[in-house]
Write a structure and sequence with these properties.
Elements lengths: L7 H17 L8 H5 L6 H10 L10 H10 L9 H13 L6 H14 L18 H5 L16 E10 L4 E6 L10 E2 L2 E2 L15 E5 L3 E4 L4 E10 L12 E5 H4 L6 H13 L4
Parallel strand pairs: 1-7
Antiparallel strand pairs: 1-4, 2-3, 2-8, 5-7, 6-7
Helix pairs in contact: 4-6
Length: 275
């Protein structure tokens, strides 16, 4: 159900956290900051938000919206991702906490960044903090927060091997739990254009044709995928194991698939690229 949404580690961590809360916290969200931090997928800001919004305890948060508000209010001229800058911003966020109505304050911080102090075209004329905002006083509020210096995204290349038998089944391989697209179903892949027959439950495959390249962009690199189309022996002659399944092309679309895999299977289905 999560496939296609991205952030797969986040989905798995949500489930792990739910299991831990059921097993160790009487199926309740723990009302303790350190206990929240110990849950998979919960960091300092999320734990602080839960403590403030759910339990009305005085804890700061520092999500993207709040970082932007603080960086502009104080005209911080260094990228907020620097460790010493982030540490100073945490301290600043803590000193600003009110004694009362903490949940309202934390929600207001987030809403201010989401609705007025936006990344581009901030609505400074409507902002209640305009008078003391140093970024507004500078006349260039969008220069804050300072952006991280851009790095050239590395480009990686891989090959996908698409096996189709005479009954229009395709072979899919479940990816390792760790790494990109963890646990989802994909095509067997390799770094070279030669089909990895030595590790697949297939015999006597024959290259039929190649398909157009696929380009997929992740947050930290770009991936170029070259798909190759093979014919395979009838399904009853091909064994399966725990990581490989043979499935009808249309039925494959019901599985958990990365977006490029789903795109390619839809292409195969719509163009009837079958034996």
């Amino acid at each position: 159900l999560w496939s296609g949404l991205g952030y797969y580690a986040r989905g798995r961590n949500l489930h792990k956290a739910a299991v831990q809360m059921q097993q160790h916290h009487d199926a309740k969200v723990p009302e303790d900051f350190q206990a929240l931090l110990d849950l998979p997928g919960i960091g300092r800001s999320t734990a602080g938000a839960i403590m403030a919004l759910a339990f009305h305890q005085r804890y700061p948060i520092l999500d993207g919206n709040v970082k932007r508000v603080l960086a502009r209010y104080d005209a911080i001229n260094v990228w907020p991702g620097e460790k010493h800058v982030e540490a100073a911003m945490w301290q600043r966020a803590e000193t600003l906490l009110p004694e009362h109505r903490i949940a309202n304050y934390i929600q207001a911080q987030m809403d201010l960044g989401a609705t007025l102090c936006t990344r581009s075209r901030p609505a400074c004329q409507q902002c209640p903090l305009q008078t003391d905002c140093q970024a507004f006083a500078s006349g260039e509020p969008t220069l804050f927060p300072v952006r991280k210096a851009k790095k050239i995204q590395p480009v990686r290349q891989t090959n996908w091997f698409i096996y189709i038998d005479q009954n229009n089944h395709i072979l899919l391989e479940q990816r390792p739990q760790n790494g990109i697209w963890g646990g989802l179903w994909s095509f067997p892949e390799g770094k070279t254009a030669e089909a990895p027959d030595n590790r697949l439950p297939i015999k006597n495959t024959l290259l039929e044709s190649s398909l157009p390249e696929i380009k997929h962009v992740f947050s930290h690199f770009k991936l170029t995928i070259t798909p190759y189309l093979f014919t395979a022996e009838p399904i009853h002659l091909v064994a399966e194991n725990n990581r490989h399944i043979w499935v009808k092309i249309d039925q494959a679309l019901t599985l958990g698939l990365p977006a490029p895999v789903k795109q390619l299977i839809q292409f195969l289905s719509s163009t009837e690229r079958m034996l």
